[in-house]
Design goal:
Blueprint: H1 2-7, H2 12-22, H3 30-39, E1 46-48, H4 49-54, E2 66-80, E3 83-86, H5 92-99, E4 105-118, H6 140-156, E5 160-164, E6 173-175, E7 179-183, H7 188-204, H8 215-232, H9 239-259, H10 265-298, H11 306-318, E8 321-326, E9 331-336
Parallel strand pairs: 5-7
Antiparallel strand pairs: 1-4, 2-3, 2-4, 6-7, 8-9
Helix pairs in contact: 6-7, 6-10, 7-8, 8-9, 8-10
Length: 343
Protein backbone atom coordinates (compact mmCIF):
# COMPACT_ATOMS: atom_id res chain seq x y z
CA UNK A 1 0.00 0.00 0.00
CA UNK A 2 2.77 2.39 1.02
CA UNK A 3 4.97 1.62 -1.97
CA UNK A 4 2.11 2.17 -4.36
CA UNK A 5 1.17 5.47 -2.72
CA UNK A 6 4.77 6.67 -3.01
CA UNK A 7 5.09 5.75 -6.66
CA UNK A 8 1.65 6.76 -7.98
CA UNK A 9 1.85 9.22 -10.87
CA UNK A 10 -1.18 10.82 -12.48
CA UNK A 11 -1.66 10.10 -16.16
CA UNK A 12 -0.71 13.32 -18.05
CA UNK A 13 -3.67 12.80 -20.39
CA UNK A 14 -6.04 12.95 -17.40
CA UNK A 15 -4.49 16.22 -16.21
CA UNK A 16 -4.68 17.71 -19.72
CA UNK A 17 -8.33 16.66 -20.03
CA UNK A 18 -9.12 18.28 -16.66
CA UNK A 19 -7.36 21.55 -17.50
CA UNK A 20 -9.01 21.78 -20.90
CA UNK A 21 -12.44 21.21 -19.34
CA UNK A 22 -11.75 23.75 -16.56
CA UNK A 23 -11.03 26.54 -19.03
CA UNK A 24 -14.72 26.74 -19.88
CA UNK A 25 -15.56 27.90 -16.36
CA UNK A 26 -15.13 31.27 -14.77
CA UNK A 27 -12.74 32.21 -12.01
CA UNK A 28 -14.20 33.79 -8.92
CA UNK A 29 -12.90 36.20 -6.30
CA UNK A 30 -11.63 34.82 -2.97
CA UNK A 31 -14.80 36.13 -1.31
CA UNK A 32 -17.06 34.32 -3.77
CA UNK A 33 -14.96 31.15 -3.50
CA UNK A 34 -15.59 31.16 0.25
CA UNK A 35 -19.31 31.65 -0.36
CA UNK A 36 -19.36 28.74 -2.84
CA UNK A 37 -17.54 26.44 -0.41
CA UNK A 38 -19.81 27.35 2.48
CA UNK A 39 -22.91 26.46 0.47
CA UNK A 40 -21.65 23.45 -1.48
CA UNK A 41 -18.28 22.05 -0.40
CA UNK A 42 -18.35 19.58 -3.29
CA UNK A 43 -18.79 22.23 -6.00
CA UNK A 44 -16.31 21.95 -8.89
CA UNK A 45 -17.58 23.49 -12.13
CA UNK A 46 -20.12 26.28 -11.75
CA UNK A 47 -22.04 28.60 -14.07
CA UNK A 48 -25.15 30.74 -14.00
CA UNK A 49 -28.50 29.38 -15.17
CA UNK A 50 -28.19 31.41 -18.41
CA UNK A 51 -24.64 30.22 -19.11
CA UNK A 52 -25.58 26.56 -18.64
CA UNK A 53 -28.49 27.14 -21.02
CA UNK A 54 -26.09 28.50 -23.67
CA UNK A 55 -24.33 25.12 -23.57
CA UNK A 56 -27.61 23.32 -24.10
CA UNK A 57 -27.59 22.10 -20.49
CA UNK A 58 -30.52 22.49 -18.10
CA UNK A 59 -30.45 23.03 -14.36
CA UNK A 60 -32.53 20.26 -12.79
CA UNK A 61 -35.92 21.23 -11.44
CA UNK A 62 -35.95 22.10 -7.74
CA UNK A 63 -32.21 22.80 -7.46
CA UNK A 64 -31.17 25.66 -5.18
CA UNK A 65 -28.57 28.00 -6.63
CA UNK A 66 -25.35 29.00 -4.89
CA UNK A 67 -25.57 32.68 -3.92
CA UNK A 68 -22.59 34.87 -4.85
CA UNK A 69 -21.86 38.59 -5.25
CA UNK A 70 -22.12 39.79 -8.85
CA UNK A 71 -20.51 43.15 -9.80
CA UNK A 72 -22.74 45.58 -11.70
CA UNK A 73 -22.24 49.08 -13.05
CA UNK A 74 -24.92 51.39 -11.60
CA UNK A 75 -25.84 54.82 -13.02
CA UNK A 76 -26.53 57.33 -10.23
CA UNK A 77 -28.48 60.54 -10.89
CA UNK A 78 -27.75 63.70 -8.92
CA UNK A 79 -31.15 64.87 -7.69
CA UNK A 80 -29.89 67.35 -5.12
CA UNK A 81 -26.63 68.70 -3.82
CA UNK A 82 -24.65 65.62 -2.86
CA UNK A 83 -27.75 63.43 -3.19
CA UNK A 84 -27.81 60.57 -5.72
CA UNK A 85 -30.33 57.90 -6.60
CA UNK A 86 -29.98 54.85 -8.92
CA UNK A 87 -31.40 55.41 -12.40
CA UNK A 88 -33.81 52.52 -11.95
CA UNK A 89 -35.38 54.29 -8.95
CA UNK A 90 -35.87 57.62 -10.78
CA UNK A 91 -39.36 58.82 -11.72
CA UNK A 92 -40.45 59.46 -15.31
CA UNK A 93 -39.52 63.17 -15.24
CA UNK A 94 -36.05 62.50 -13.79
CA UNK A 95 -35.39 59.85 -16.45
CA UNK A 96 -36.48 62.28 -19.18
CA UNK A 97 -34.22 65.01 -17.78
CA UNK A 98 -31.34 62.52 -17.65
CA UNK A 99 -31.79 61.63 -21.32
CA UNK A 100 -31.93 65.33 -22.18
CA UNK A 101 -28.66 65.92 -20.33
CA UNK A 102 -30.27 68.14 -17.69
CA UNK A 103 -29.24 65.89 -14.76
CA UNK A 104 -25.66 65.02 -13.86
CA UNK A 105 -24.83 61.35 -13.43
CA UNK A 106 -21.97 59.16 -12.25
CA UNK A 107 -21.12 55.48 -12.70
CA UNK A 108 -20.48 53.36 -9.63
CA UNK A 109 -19.54 49.70 -9.17
CA UNK A 110 -21.91 47.91 -6.84
CA UNK A 111 -22.74 44.30 -6.06
CA UNK A 112 -25.95 42.32 -6.18
CA UNK A 113 -26.78 38.74 -5.28
CA UNK A 114 -26.61 36.32 -8.19
CA UNK A 115 -26.91 32.54 -8.35
CA UNK A 116 -24.78 29.86 -9.94
CA UNK A 117 -25.18 26.09 -10.20
CA UNK A 118 -22.66 23.28 -9.96
CA UNK A 119 -22.38 20.78 -12.81
CA UNK A 120 -23.78 18.18 -10.41
CA UNK A 121 -27.05 20.14 -10.29
CA UNK A 122 -27.49 20.01 -14.06
CA UNK A 123 -28.34 17.52 -16.80
CA UNK A 124 -24.77 17.64 -18.13
CA UNK A 125 -24.01 14.11 -19.48
CA UNK A 126 -21.94 11.99 -17.09
CA UNK A 127 -19.92 10.46 -19.91
CA UNK A 128 -18.63 13.95 -20.75
CA UNK A 129 -17.28 14.76 -17.28
CA UNK A 130 -13.50 15.23 -17.21
CA UNK A 131 -11.69 11.89 -16.73
CA UNK A 132 -10.54 12.82 -13.25
CA UNK A 133 -14.22 12.73 -12.20
CA UNK A 134 -15.08 9.41 -13.78
CA UNK A 135 -18.42 8.14 -12.47
CA UNK A 136 -17.56 4.52 -13.31
CA UNK A 137 -19.60 1.98 -15.25
CA UNK A 138 -22.45 -0.38 -14.53
CA UNK A 139 -21.80 -3.99 -13.58
CA UNK A 140 -24.42 -6.47 -12.43
CA UNK A 141 -21.78 -8.37 -10.43
CA UNK A 142 -20.76 -5.25 -8.54
CA UNK A 143 -24.39 -4.45 -7.82
CA UNK A 144 -24.64 -7.84 -6.10
CA UNK A 145 -21.56 -7.08 -4.02
CA UNK A 146 -22.96 -3.65 -3.11
CA UNK A 147 -26.19 -5.27 -1.87
CA UNK A 148 -24.14 -7.64 0.28
CA UNK A 149 -21.97 -4.86 1.69
CA UNK A 150 -25.11 -2.88 2.55
CA UNK A 151 -26.39 -5.84 4.57
CA UNK A 152 -23.02 -6.17 6.27
CA UNK A 153 -22.90 -2.46 7.11
CA UNK A 154 -26.39 -2.41 8.53
CA UNK A 155 -26.12 -5.66 10.51
CA UNK A 156 -22.49 -5.62 11.66
CA UNK A 157 -21.61 -1.92 11.77
CA UNK A 158 -25.05 -0.63 12.70
CA UNK A 159 -24.70 1.72 9.77
CA UNK A 160 -27.51 2.52 7.31
CA UNK A 161 -26.52 2.98 3.67
CA UNK A 162 -28.43 5.39 1.43
CA UNK A 163 -27.93 6.97 -1.98
CA UNK A 164 -28.43 10.74 -2.14
CA UNK A 165 -28.18 13.63 -4.56
CA UNK A 166 -25.06 15.34 -3.19
CA UNK A 167 -25.24 18.14 -5.80
CA UNK A 168 -21.65 17.40 -6.75
CA UNK A 169 -19.51 15.17 -8.94
CA UNK A 170 -16.47 15.52 -6.67
CA UNK A 171 -18.11 14.47 -3.40
CA UNK A 172 -18.51 10.69 -3.70
CA UNK A 173 -20.00 9.97 -0.30
CA UNK A 174 -19.68 10.48 3.43
CA UNK A 175 -20.00 8.73 6.78
CA UNK A 176 -21.63 10.48 9.72
CA UNK A 177 -23.65 9.36 12.76
CA UNK A 178 -24.02 5.72 11.75
CA UNK A 179 -25.03 6.63 8.22
CA UNK A 180 -23.20 6.11 4.92
CA UNK A 181 -24.43 8.31 2.08
CA UNK A 182 -23.38 7.54 -1.50
CA UNK A 183 -23.61 9.93 -4.44
CA UNK A 184 -26.49 8.69 -6.58
CA UNK A 185 -24.66 9.87 -9.73
CA UNK A 186 -22.06 7.10 -9.32
CA UNK A 187 -22.26 3.94 -11.39
CA UNK A 188 -21.77 0.60 -9.65
CA UNK A 189 -17.97 0.37 -10.07
CA UNK A 190 -17.44 3.69 -8.27
CA UNK A 191 -20.29 3.04 -5.83
CA UNK A 192 -18.51 -0.13 -4.67
CA UNK A 193 -15.23 1.73 -4.22
CA UNK A 194 -16.90 4.56 -2.29
CA UNK A 195 -18.96 2.22 -0.12
CA UNK A 196 -15.89 0.24 0.99
CA UNK A 197 -14.09 3.53 1.73
CA UNK A 198 -16.94 4.85 3.89
CA UNK A 199 -17.16 1.46 5.60
CA UNK A 200 -13.51 2.01 6.49
CA UNK A 201 -14.48 5.24 8.24
CA UNK A 202 -17.33 3.47 10.04
CA UNK A 203 -14.95 0.74 11.28
CA UNK A 204 -11.92 2.85 12.16
CA UNK A 205 -13.20 6.32 12.97
CA UNK A 206 -15.46 7.11 15.85
CA UNK A 207 -15.11 9.24 18.97
CA UNK A 208 -12.91 6.63 20.65
CA UNK A 209 -10.72 5.61 17.72
CA UNK A 210 -9.94 8.85 15.89
CA UNK A 211 -8.78 11.14 18.68
CA UNK A 212 -5.95 13.35 17.46
CA UNK A 213 -6.10 12.02 13.90
CA UNK A 214 -5.95 14.48 11.01
CA UNK A 215 -8.26 14.35 8.00
CA UNK A 216 -5.41 13.09 5.81
CA UNK A 217 -4.64 10.23 8.21
CA UNK A 218 -8.29 9.18 8.45
CA UNK A 219 -8.75 9.33 4.67
CA UNK A 220 -5.59 7.27 4.13
CA UNK A 221 -6.77 4.65 6.64
CA UNK A 222 -10.20 4.42 5.00
CA UNK A 223 -8.52 4.00 1.60
CA UNK A 224 -6.43 1.14 2.98
CA UNK A 225 -9.58 -0.61 4.19
CA UNK A 226 -11.29 0.00 0.84
CA UNK A 227 -8.42 -1.42 -1.21
CA UNK A 228 -7.99 -4.51 1.00
CA UNK A 229 -11.73 -5.25 0.96
CA UNK A 230 -12.02 -4.86 -2.80
CA UNK A 231 -8.90 -6.94 -3.42
CA UNK A 232 -10.22 -9.63 -1.09
CA UNK A 233 -13.39 -9.82 -3.18
CA UNK A 234 -11.36 -10.06 -6.40
CA UNK A 235 -12.24 -6.55 -7.60
CA UNK A 236 -9.96 -4.21 -9.52
CA UNK A 237 -9.07 -0.96 -7.79
CA UNK A 238 -10.31 2.13 -9.65
CA UNK A 239 -8.01 4.98 -10.66
CA UNK A 240 -10.11 7.28 -8.48
CA UNK A 241 -9.33 5.22 -5.38
CA UNK A 242 -5.63 4.93 -6.26
CA UNK A 243 -5.41 8.68 -6.75
CA UNK A 244 -7.19 9.34 -3.46
CA UNK A 245 -4.87 6.95 -1.60
CA UNK A 246 -1.73 8.56 -3.03
CA UNK A 247 -2.88 12.12 -2.34
CA UNK A 248 -3.76 11.42 1.29
CA UNK A 249 -0.67 9.33 1.92
CA UNK A 250 1.51 12.24 0.78
CA UNK A 251 -0.48 14.73 2.87
CA UNK A 252 -0.16 12.44 5.89
CA UNK A 253 3.62 12.14 5.43
CA UNK A 254 3.97 15.92 5.19
CA UNK A 255 2.11 16.21 8.47
CA UNK A 256 4.50 13.75 10.11
CA UNK A 257 7.48 15.71 8.79
CA UNK A 258 6.12 18.77 10.58
CA UNK A 259 5.50 16.72 13.71
CA UNK A 260 9.16 15.69 13.83
CA UNK A 261 10.48 19.14 13.00
CA UNK A 262 14.21 19.39 13.60
CA UNK A 263 14.83 15.79 12.56
CA UNK A 264 16.42 15.14 9.17
CA UNK A 265 17.68 12.41 6.88
CA UNK A 266 17.69 8.81 8.05
CA UNK A 267 16.53 9.68 11.56
CA UNK A 268 13.44 11.45 10.19
CA UNK A 269 12.61 8.55 7.85
CA UNK A 270 12.84 6.05 10.70
CA UNK A 271 10.49 8.11 12.87
CA UNK A 272 7.97 8.49 10.04
CA UNK A 273 8.16 4.79 9.12
CA UNK A 274 7.66 3.79 12.76
CA UNK A 275 4.62 6.05 13.06
CA UNK A 276 3.05 4.78 9.84
CA UNK A 277 3.79 1.16 10.70
CA UNK A 278 2.09 1.56 14.06
CA UNK A 279 -0.85 3.23 12.34
CA UNK A 280 -1.19 0.45 9.78
CA UNK A 281 -1.03 -2.22 12.51
CA UNK A 282 -4.18 -0.63 13.96
CA UNK A 283 -5.83 -0.53 10.54
CA UNK A 284 -4.82 -4.13 9.85
CA UNK A 285 -6.42 -5.37 13.08
CA UNK A 286 -9.66 -3.62 12.10
CA UNK A 287 -9.52 -5.16 8.63
CA UNK A 288 -8.81 -8.64 10.00
CA UNK A 289 -11.69 -8.49 12.47
CA UNK A 290 -14.22 -7.30 9.92
CA UNK A 291 -13.14 -9.50 7.01
CA UNK A 292 -13.88 -12.52 9.18
CA UNK A 293 -17.41 -11.21 9.66
CA UNK A 294 -17.81 -10.21 6.01
CA UNK A 295 -16.91 -13.72 4.88
CA UNK A 296 -20.23 -15.01 6.21
CA UNK A 297 -22.09 -12.60 3.93
CA UNK A 298 -19.90 -13.36 0.94
CA UNK A 299 -20.84 -17.03 1.15
CA UNK A 300 -24.45 -16.27 0.23
CA UNK A 301 -24.75 -17.26 -3.43
CA UNK A 302 -27.87 -15.14 -3.91
CA UNK A 303 -25.76 -12.00 -3.84
CA UNK A 304 -22.19 -12.92 -4.75
CA UNK A 305 -20.74 -13.16 -8.28
CA UNK A 306 -19.42 -16.57 -9.26
CA UNK A 307 -15.81 -15.39 -9.60
CA UNK A 308 -15.84 -14.03 -6.03
CA UNK A 309 -17.05 -17.37 -4.67
CA UNK A 310 -14.38 -19.18 -6.68
CA UNK A 311 -11.74 -16.88 -5.26
CA UNK A 312 -12.96 -17.51 -1.70
CA UNK A 313 -12.98 -21.24 -2.37
CA UNK A 314 -9.37 -21.18 -3.60
CA UNK A 315 -8.25 -19.24 -0.53
CA UNK A 316 -10.08 -21.51 1.88
CA UNK A 317 -8.60 -24.64 0.28
CA UNK A 318 -5.14 -23.14 0.76
CA UNK A 319 -5.97 -22.81 4.46
CA UNK A 320 -7.44 -26.28 4.81
CA UNK A 321 -11.07 -25.53 3.97
CA UNK A 322 -13.43 -26.36 1.18
CA UNK A 323 -16.89 -25.12 0.23
CA UNK A 324 -19.83 -27.29 -0.70
CA UNK A 325 -23.08 -26.09 -2.19
CA UNK A 326 -26.32 -26.94 -0.48
CA UNK A 327 -28.84 -26.98 -3.32
CA UNK A 328 -31.93 -26.55 -1.16
CA UNK A 329 -30.83 -23.31 0.53
CA UNK A 330 -28.57 -22.09 -2.25
CA UNK A 331 -25.76 -21.36 0.18
CA UNK A 332 -22.06 -22.12 0.18
CA UNK A 333 -21.23 -23.62 3.53
CA UNK A 334 -17.72 -23.61 4.86
CA UNK A 335 -16.67 -26.98 6.25
CA UNK A 336 -13.57 -27.20 8.39
CA UNK A 337 -11.08 -29.90 7.50
CA UNK A 338 -8.34 -29.13 9.94
CA UNK A 339 -7.86 -25.64 11.33
CA UNK A 340 -9.28 -22.12 11.24
CA UNK A 341 -8.59 -19.54 8.58
CA UNK A 342 -5.92 -17.01 9.47
CA UNK A 343 -5.42 -13.53 8.11
Amino acid sequence: MEEFAKSYKENPEVIADYLQFSQRFYEYSPRNLRLIYQQNRGATFVKSFADWKKEGVSVKRGETGIAIWVPVQVTLLEVGEGKYIPLREANAQQKADYKAGKIESVKQLRYKVGHIFDIGQTTYPKDQYPKIYNMGSFSDDKEKLIDTLKLFSENELGCTVVQEDLQSIALRGYYCDKKIALNQKLETTETLSTLTHEMGHAMAHNKDKDKGKSTAQKEYEADCVSIVFQSYMGEDISDTRKRHLAENYKRYRRELEKKFVGKTGEELEKLIDKEMESNFDTVHSIIKENLTKLEKYLNNSEFIPKRTLELLEERSEDKGFYYKKEQKKGLFEKVQKGHGMEM
